[in-house]
Amino acid sequence: MTDKQKTADEFLEWLKGQIPLINHMGFLPLEWDGQQLKMSAELEPNVNDKGTGFGGSLATVATLCGWSIVTLYLREQGRNDDVVIRDSHLEYFLPVTSDFTAATSLPERNVLQQFDEKMDAKGRARMDLVIEILQQDKVALRLTGSYVALEKKPR
Q1: Which NCBIfam families is this protein grouped with (predicted)?
Q2: Residue pair 147/127 in contact by the 8 Å Cβ criterion
């Protein structure tokens, strides 16, 4: 097992403790290589009355995928900041009829450098991401979202 896979496995276990809902969504092991994150889930616990993927579940998995990649990135920078979604736009293209995967990648290095500089200077920075729900390599849903990292204040 690679260090990145160990990080992904530990992160998913931590996440399940933080967000109880995802314990019921059929998540499979995460795939994280330090640049791209894939979160897969089973269709069965996320099905709607038509036998296809429930839009709310798909949106949840996509939103969580973006939140997770920002959180993983910050942790790899030695930071433990809060991450929130600021806004998002969803586009549904195809019905989901089998297990599915949410996938996203970190922005280019220069964008990450600007993000890091803002975090250091202001304790707050935004990262814009595109997350896609894939089913058999076809895009079923696309979320375009802005995630904000906020430096945790001592309590």
Answers
A1: yiiD_Cterm
A2: yes
Give me 76's structure tokens.
């790899």
Question: Taking each helix axis from N to C terminus, what angle separates 3-18 and 55-76, rounded to the nearest 10 degrees?
Answer: 120
pTM of the full predicted structure? Answer: 0.94
The CA angle 135-128-125, to the nearest 5 degrees, is 140
Contact 32, 4 (CB under 8 A): yes
Calculate the alpha carbon distances from 127 to 83, 121, 130 in Å.
Answer: 10, 16, 10
State pLDDT tens for residues 44-77: 999 999 999 999 999 999 999 999 999 999 999 9
Contact (Cβ atoms closer than 8 angstroms) between residue 49 and residue 57: no
90-133 pLDDT, tens digit per residue, is 999 999 999 999 999 999 999 999 999 999 999 999 999 999 99
What domains appear along the chain, each with residue ranges and CATH number?
3-150 (3.10.129.10)
DSSP state of 24: G
Write out the two tokens for 90.
């969803």
